[in-house]
Write a structure and sequence with these properties.
Elements: E1 5-12, H1 15-22, E2 28-36, H2 46-51, E3 57-65, H3 71-80, E4 89-90, E5 93-94, E6 100-104, H4 107-120, E7 131-134, E8 138-140, H5 148-151, H6 156-172
Parallel strand pairs: 6-7
Antiparallel strand pairs: 1-3, 1-6, 2-3, 2-8, 4-5
């Protein structure tokens, strides 16, 4: 089974949202919140990321079993559970750290990313602005940012922002849920 494990690095705004979505997806073994895509050396702090000055995006690292769910299916779920048409913004969260981004790890992931975005561009009224960039390094976020929704469901942000995304996941991708 270990040979079938792959990883995807995706940023769809706040990492709490995307983490919660993928924790419910069949074939996903592990989801870790973190940061990627920045230009400032060293591990950035949450405060530095929130400043928007490091160039990092809030992302998740998804470890998935490719015999259960493909990279393309991961991307379709990703693209349909956040708004890929708003530049550097998801809802009230604004800044480059909240950009929609796919960090590909090889040429196959790059090709699949472009194929999925082309396919889904017909679904959206506005242009998709999701960035497709080469992966360089992933920094894991501090422990208080891991499993955020699971541990804070009653918190306002979770109720008003994350729960609706989970409802969209359940409505559009019921066949992909654990």
């Amino acid at each position: 089974m270990k040979n079938n494990l792959e990883t995807a690095i995706l940023g769809g705004g706040c990492f709490w949202c995307t983490e919660a979505v993928f924790q419910e997806v069949k074939g996903v073994e592990k989801v870790v919140s973190g940061y990627s895509g920045g230009t400032v050396p060293g591990k950035p702090t949450y405060r530095e990321i929130c400043s928007g000055l490091t160039g990092h995006a809030e992302v998740i690292e998804i470890t998935f079993n490719a015999t259960i769910i493909s990279f393309a299916e991961i991307l379709i779920i990703f693209m349909t559970t956040h708004d890929p048409t708003t530049l550097n913004q998801q809802g009230a969260d604004r800044g480059t750290q909240y950009r929609s981004v796919i960090f590909y790890q090889n040429e196959t992931q790059k090709e699949v990313a472009y194929e999925v975005l082309t396919q889904l561009s017909e679904v959206y009224e506005n242009n998709i602005v999701t960035e497709i960039s080469p992966f360089s390094i992933f920094y894991e976020a501090d422990s208080e940012h891991q499993n955020y929704y699971r541990e804070n469901k009653e918190q306002g942000y979770c109720s008003y922002v994350i729960t609706p995304k989970l409802n969209t996941l359940r409505r559009l991708h019921a066949d992909k849920l654990k």
